[in-house]
Each structure stands twice: as C-alpha cells, then as structure tokens.
Amino acid sequence: MEAPQNNVLLEVKNLKMYFPITRGLLRKKVGDVKAVDDISFEIKKHETLGLVGESGCGKTTTGRCILRVYNPTSGDIIFNGKDISTLSERRLKEHRRNMGAIFQDPFGSLNPRHSAGGIVSDPLKVHQMAAGKEMNDKVAELFNLVGLDPGMMDRVPHEFSGGQRQRIGVARALACSPSLIICDEPISALDVSIQAQIINLLEELQEKLGLTYLFIAHDLAMVQHISDRVAVMYLGRIMELTGTDELYENPLHPYTKALLSAIPIPDPIAERTRTRIVLKGEVPSPINPPSGCHFHPRCQIAIEDCKVTRPPLRDVGNGHFVACIRV
C-alpha cells in the first residue's frame, strides 16, 4: 500500500479477526471463523471510503475492529497517528471520543426505555463533556443539526418514524464531535424515499463539520453516490480498491465486474442488451476458505495458479489496487 501521509486519518494494516470455534466440555479450540483475513487500507481526512460486498464478507466486523468493539487477532489500526489496536480500555476511551458509529437498525440500536434526548446525551455523560443546562443545550443543537425538532427530545423511540429514528442515531454519533464515523449500512433498513434523505444529511454534515466516513453497504448504487473511493470485499479479503468513478467505469477484478453487472439500469433498452455475469456456486465458508485466491472457485477466468497463489493487493496504476494475478 502507499506510504502514510499527513492527511491520512485512519490506516489499517494487515488486519485479521478470527473467531475461535470450540467444542466439548473443555471448550477445546478446533478451528477459526476467518471473518477478516489480512486486509489493509487507509482513509484520508474528510473523505468517504465505501466498503462493499456480499453478506458475511467481513464488512461489519472490519468496522467493529476499528471501533475496538472486537479486539483484533492481529494487525495495526492507526488512528490519528496512534496505533489503537492493542490499547487498554482506559487508554482507548480518549480515542473513542473521536469516533462515532451509525448502525443498521434504527430501532434496535436505540434504548426503547430512554427518551430521544437521553439517548443523544449518553456519549456526553460517558465522556463527561457536559452536564445540566449545557448538556440540554448541546442535545437541542444536535437535534437541529440533524433536522429534528428539539421539542421532541422527551419522546421515546417508538414515537418516531424509521427515518427520524436514524436521525437520532446520527445525532448520537455526532455528540462528542468525532472526526471519524463508521456508517454500518445506515440506510438498508429504511424506505427508499427516506434513504436519499439520510444520504443527503450525511453529505451535508460532512461538508459542514469536516467528517470522515467509512460507509459500509451492499447497495452499490448508493455507495457510488456518496463515496470518494470504494473497497470491494469478498470472504474476508479486499479484492479491489480505487476511486469511485474509476471502479464503476473500469472495474478490473472479476468479482467487482459481477457485482456491477447486477445493478439495475433505468434504461429498458440498455438493460435488455447488457451482459449479466452470474457467479457459479455459493460463497465458501469462512471456517474453511479456499486456498490461494478466495474467489477462484467461482471465477470465470481462474487458472491453476489461482488455487495456490494468494494474489497481493497491488497498485496497477493511479491508485487502482487489485488482488488478481490475471489483471
């Protein structure tokens, strides 16, 4: 990968997250679920990196490792120039103030017994950043920022619509004025008409507050709209990483081409005449992934070397990284 620069906010190096499989009374380890299998990437300040792939490919696990919800098996997570991958909980707390998270389910991620104002104020209490009237004013300011009426602060989550609940989640993520926000499929549980509103809100907030996003999603069309660069994951590894326009106009990895061929085109003639790439077989298990390139059992251009050689994520020009020996 490229050498880190001063404008890099987050750098992930050789990140692995293996979940042990145990059996028997003595809980003997018999294997691992290789959810994230040696990935590297960086996110520059004020940019949005889209992370896409099929369900179960390791996108959400990657986000949780960055937030240190999970303790990585190995690898480095360098945030603001500091490696946080092995920090203790006490030392990690000061760095967590600079990170926020927006979750997929806008109802399941909010405490149904707490008021909306109480939910948004929780990070301020945890990090002891405000109290009393100052906290109340800060929460009201956050409500205004995400397009909610501060008069609704005393309501509980079930009194809001899905889109409003996600706005509460966005306000909570912004409470401690973070520089990085992990957006874990923040629009997939919302109606299509509401999705665009939330995406527009995230873009406005990024411009106004100078935010940096890791935007995890499986909707390639929406990722194209919001991201500056896109990383494509498959079975715990990054297959391709490049600028958004470059990825959609010139995809190089066979898996990326298959994903892009599945995006509907709002032109019936073009839709009928284009070639759809249908992948054979099922996604292998992360417990026992294929040797060599993880994608080779389903790849249309695979050769014998693909079964034994793990392709490195290499730069083929202009910051376009691809993990494929056939490219």
Task: Report on this structure.
- By secondary structure, this protein is an alpha/beta fold.
- The chain starts with 7 loop residues before the first strand and ends in a 5-residue tail after the last strand.
- The protein contains ten helices and twelve strands.
- The protein is globular.
- The strands form two sheets. An eight-stranded mixed sheet has the order 6-7-8-3-9-10-12-11, with helices on both faces. It has a four-stranded antiparallel sheet with strand order 2-1-4-5.
- The protein has a domain of 163 residues: Rossmann fold (3-Layer(aba) Sandwich), CATH 3.40.50.
- The mean pLDDT is 91.
Précis, in short:
The chain is an alpha/beta fold and 327 residues long. It has helices spanning 59-66, 89-96, 116-126, 132-145, 162-174, 192-209, 220-226, 244-249, 254-261, 268-273, and strands at 8-23, 28-44, 48-52, 74-79, 82-83, 99-102, 180-184, 212-217, 229-234, 237-243, 314-315, 321-322.
Notable characteristics:
single chain, 327 residues, alpha/beta, Rossmann fold, eight-stranded mixed β-sheet, 12 strands, 24% strand, globular
What level of helicity do the residues show?
A: 25-40%
What's the Cα radius of gyration? Answer: 21 Å
Please report the number of helical segments: 10
> What summary fits the major beta sheet?
8 strands, mixed
The spatial strand order of the largest sheet comes to 6-7-8-3-9-10-12-11
Mean pLDDT equals: 91
**Which structural class fits the helix and strand makeup?**
alpha/beta
| Terminal Cα span | 17 Å
Poorly predicted spans? none
Report the strand count. 12
The shape, in one word, is globular
